[in-house]
Each structure stands twice: as structure tokens, then as C-alpha cells.
Amino acid sequence: MTAPLRLRSKRNRVEKVPLPGEENAWAVVKDFGENREGYAAELKMARLLLAAGVPAAPILRAEEPVITYRWLEGVPLADLLGRAEEGPEGEALLRRAMEALCAWLEGYRAAAGGIILGDAHLRNFLLLEDGTVAGVDFECCRPGRPEEDAAKLAVFTAAYDPPWTPAKTRLAAFLLGECQRRLGLDWGLLEEEMARELAAMGRRRGKEMDPALLGPVLELAKENHR
After folding, report:
1. End of a domain among 16, 47, 70?
2. How far apart are CA 103 and CA 109, in angstroms?
3. Domain shared by 59 and 95, yes or no
4. pLDDT for 9
5. Residue at which a domain ends, from 70, 92, 121
6. pTM for this model (two decimals)
7. Most buried pick, 20, 39, 125, 174, via CB within 10 A?
8. What is the residue range of 13's domain?
9. Residue 205, exposed/middle/buried by CB under 10 A (0-12, 13-18, 19+)?
10. Based on the domain organization, do 66 and 149 belong to the same domain?
């Protein structure tokens, strides 16, 4: 039998394991340890989204502190960002992926109401074979405004290595425009949240981030939205 594969996670122990009784099928076992609040928040949101038809990994079993999901075949959106630097074809691929992401966010908001993801980044979204996007990792869900999630996603996109390139700027602006169109974001609040996220990113990376980096992204997003 194939050995379990440890998956990247900062907060939990997450493993990809063979699914017994099914050939070439996999499950994801997520152990929250002592994080009972995270376990409860994720289980509640995953069940809510699945019931509403919002793409997410099916739950196979849940017994505190472990949730077992069926493995979803897809590519994390973060792993596709490098394609933005490959010219028009790469940018077109990423734009289609961002459209699918924003459609997911629209469905999420309809199902979750005033509860936001709280830890929104592109590693938690998978582009599936049919071109749709599925979300994973809901333990940080909390009450908030959608501008917070949109700001995190846009800053993550623009600052992904190589950061702040013209292609990444266009992609982040496109993402914001799609979020604005689907979610009706407040531009003033969005700018505040993006500045806050940029400062937080600087603290995580141990270097100050110039707020002026956000100007071209926001200007292009507003221009595209007119």
C-alpha cells in the first residue's frame, strides 16, 4: 500500500492517504490537534458549502479532532501564478482561473452570508479539470467584510514571486474588478484592507513594503471597472 504523503500546512497535520476499497482513490486526513475551534469552524462551513452546492472537498468522516475528505484532483491557483509571466496565453489562462475563483467567492458569500474566509490565499483554491474552482481550508472563517478576503487575494497575487510585475499587476487588478462586479465591494474599504494586508505581509517577510506598490493595481482595477 502506498505510504501517506504529508501535505503542507502551518497549523495542522494533513496527510494524503489511499482510500480503502477504491483503486487509485485518495483521501485527505486533517488532524486539528488541540485546535477545537478550528475543527468546529471548518466542519460547519464545509457542510454548509456542500449543502449549498458550492464546490468543496466532500467529507468522508468527521470525528473530533479529525476530518477526512475525499481528495480533489486540481491545481492550486498559487501554482499557476508563474504562468502570468509567459505572455498573452499565460495571462488568458490566469484570467479564466480568476473568473472561476470569483464565481466561487460569489457562491460562498451567498451561502455564508457575513462570514468571511479570514485566511484567503491562492493555495486554498484548486482549479479543477472542468475549469471550475473549489475551496479548501475553512478553519479561520469568521464574521467580517468581503473586502478583507478580496484584499488578501489581490495582494497575494501581485506580490507572488516575481512580485509586482506588469503581468501580476494586471492580474491582481482583474481579480479586484471581478470581485467588485460580483460582490459589490466598497473601494474605500478595499484600499484600507489592501494597505493593511501589505503591511502584514511586510512583517511576515521581515521588510517594509512600500504602500505605493498598491497604486497601479487599484488604478487599473478602477479603470477596468468603469
Report:
1. 70
2. 10
3. no
4. 77
5. 70
6. 0.94
7. 125
8. 5-70
9. exposed
10. no
